[in-house]
Design brief:
The chain has 176 residues and is mostly helical. The protein has eight helices and two strands.
Length: 176
């Protein structure tokens, strides 16, 4: 496998030309089930397994789970900002540095609990968005573009699939 395939086992995110209700509903379903999928993948892993990497010099399984909690908290806040402010500019964060902070040494099961509660709240909001809400936008300063909430739902559905694939890949390829 080449490095690009190892980094993006489900491919890079591609925005569909048309975002239908069916596509949004499927993406919300993916987000809703993500914590259960992660739990199924990591529940029987020991400390050594949790320290496996999905690629050389990539994150460990534990770091991936912690990253998902960090990333999804940020996304949840971005949704709330877009729903309550007119075209807010969101704050990006240095995810690679966050992955090295002391809390990344905690058990990934702590972040899994966080993901479970967070996704319950987040999905409740997502399932109750009106068409008007879905079209609300925020500005991502690093990308210098407006991102609609309906697009961000798809981005985070992809994000769930992307990192779930990393966890599965680490278990198979077993990079240390």
């Amino acid at each position: 496998m080449n490095l690009e395939t190892l980094k993006f086992p489900v491919g890079k995110f591609v925005k569909p030309e048309s975002i239908t209700k069916e596509i949004i509903d499927s993406a919300i379903n993916e987000i809703e089930n993500f914590p259960n999928f992660v739990k199924a993948e990591i529940q029987n892993l020991d400390e050594n397994d949790l320290n496996l990497r999905y690629r050389p010099e990539g994150w460990t399984i534990s770091q991936v789970v912690h990253h998902c909690a960090d990333s999804h908290i940020n996304s949840y806040m971005r949704f709330k900002l877009a729903l309550t402010e007119n075209l807010p500019t969101i704050k990006p964060y240095e995810e690679s540095l966050w992955a090295e902070l002391p809390d990344s040494k905690l058990s990934p099961f702590i972040s899994l609990k966080l993901l479970e509660a967070l996704h319950e709240r987040w999905v409740f909001i997502l399932k109750n968005l009106s068409d008007e809400d879905l079209n609300k936008e925020f500005i991502h300063p690093e990308q210098s573009e407006k991102i609609s909430l309906k697009e961000n739902i798809l981005i985070y559905s992809w994000h769930c699939q992307h990192h779930l694939a990393h966890i599965k890949q680490a278990k198979v390829l077993r990079f240390e």
